[in-house]
Amino acid sequence: MPRVPHVEKHFTATENVRDIVIGMSDGLTVPFALAAGLSGAVENTSVIVLAGLAEIAAGSIAMGLGGYLAAKTDAEHFVSEREREVRETIEMPEEEAAEVARVFLDYGLPEHTVGTVVDALRSDQKRWVDFMMKFELGLEEPNPTRARVSALTIALSYIVGGMVPLTPYFIWRSSVHTALVASVIVTLLALLVFGYIKGRFTTPRPWRSAWQTALVGGLAATAAFIIAKLIG
Amino acid sequence: MPRVPHVEKHFTATENVRDIVIGMSDGLTVPFALAAGLSGAVENTSVIVLAGLAEIAAGSIAMGLGGYLAAKTDAEHFVSEREREVRETIEMPEEEAAEVARVFLDYGLPEHTVGTVVDALRSDQKRWVDFMMKFELGLEEPNPTRARVSALTIALSYIVGGMVPLTPYFIWRSSVHTALVASVIVTLLALLVFGYIKGRFTTPRPWRSAWQTALVGGLAATAAFIIAKLIG
Q1: How far apart are CA B130 and CA B1, in angstroms?
Q2: Is the ipTM of this complex over 0.85?
């Protein structure tokens, strides 16, 4: 996510908020839908709790560890692209200068101005490479400790989100029906609240985010329920 | 993902490849881990097939529809930020010009050059706004038909990925143990192949991507198996 220089005007979600959103929105949705689906075909809450907890373990590891490795790959990608740009500014400086010039010419800058800009950028190799990394390739330098924090945040958010729809199945162990109804009510409310808060960070219309988030969860649960009913 | 102008030199995953990777990597991992986990606690393949199919339905909808809404939100975010920038170039052109100037001053351009660049950019409002959208805010104009294609690609990839670990449970309906062993072999192979192909697109080290992808799936499945054994 590109960092925005003037925060007071344009919204930017912090990376932690984004990770919580990623983990929690899947955590609230998928275990919810799985539990609701199984409720359509299974008489026994213990199977649902078992499947739900197995799903939370699988999902949190897949998302957290997957996110960790993806962040590590991004960081390496940045380093290798940067090395390539450094090499290119040494081995083929004219081609690289022409690439920078093209960026500015496309924005309608007159040629003599572009020449001055390119010469000024070229005068300092580090800045020249920095400029190309950001404006030509659109790559931001990743924070080195980010991957681990991000993985843990996503995994924990998935677990916290996933426990919401499962809790009723712990409480009403003897009645799948009661647990299902309670799980649907509690989780839809949680999705509304979560969608609203997420929307406050990402859109000017948080209420729409609230009902859309609840809708995705509701549709996923309905689809899982119908499939389980058909084959159960 | 920012588009890269000179594709022949720097890698860029197409958006479709990225969507297939997103859908398939979770599709291969989470239903696999769920089925393996349940195999540790349930005697009956039909419960595993049921839970697996419910999970695939839930996961594909959550990822596909969730991705659709996220892409729509991004598109709206772009439009509203663009409108804001247009307004600002009219209402407070000097502040906006100063922001652009700051970008270039940070890269060490001499002040008189920056003045010429800013004046050239300001001379055409559309280009000026385009420039700020891309270089100051780091936002690319989203493709309007992208959201729907992306949602379908992610959802279908999730379904295709998820059917791989479940297929053995359809074939060996009478033995959870045989189905589990077959599912582990088939899915780890699929994760290796998928991780290798993904790595060919994203890193210079595709073999490492192969074993890392298999490792994430294997760990998620092991964790789900242990949890299901403990409580099952």
Answers
A1: 17
A2: no
